[in-house]
Amino acid sequence: MSIPNDPVILLSYLNTQLRDNYSSLTEFCKANSVDEEQIRQKLALLNYEYSPERNQFV
């Protein structure tokens, strides 16, 4: 399965995946063969950034 392309849907999808299945964004990206920097940049367009302490985009 590919990850959502729409930034708003991607935000929801990622935070759910991080909460339920992964201990970090890096772990998610490696497991799903996606570029972490591209995800960060896409969600930065919505003014969200990854918080390692919370393991979610805030």
Could you characterize what this model shows?
With 58 residues, this protein is mainly α. Helices cover 53% and strands 7% of the residues. It has 3 helices and 2 strands. It has helices spanning 7-20, 25-32, 36-44, and strands spanning 50-51, 56-57. A two-stranded antiparallel sheet has the order 1-2. The longest helix has 14 residues, at 7-20.
Question: Which terms summarize this structure?
Answer:
globular; 2 strands; single chain; 58 residues; 3 helices; 53% helix; mainly alpha
SSE topology sketch:
Blueprint: H1 7-20, H2 25-32, H3 36-44, E1 50-51, E2 56-57
Antiparallel strand pairs: 1-2
Write a compact overview of the structure shown.
The chain is mainly alpha-helical. The chain is 53% helix and 7% strand.
- The total of beta strands comes to 2
SSE sequence, one letter per element: HHHEE
Structural class: mainly alpha
Going across the major beta sheet, what is the strand order? 1-2
- Global geometry: globular
Residue stretches low in confidence (pLDDT < 50, at least 5 long) are none
Helicity range of the residues?
40-55%
Radius of gyration: 10 Å
CA-to-CA gap between the ends? 24 Å
Count of alpha and pi helical runs = 3
Mean pLDDT: 97
Fraction in beta strands: 5-15%
Q: Biggest sheet, in brief?
A: 2 strands, antiparallel
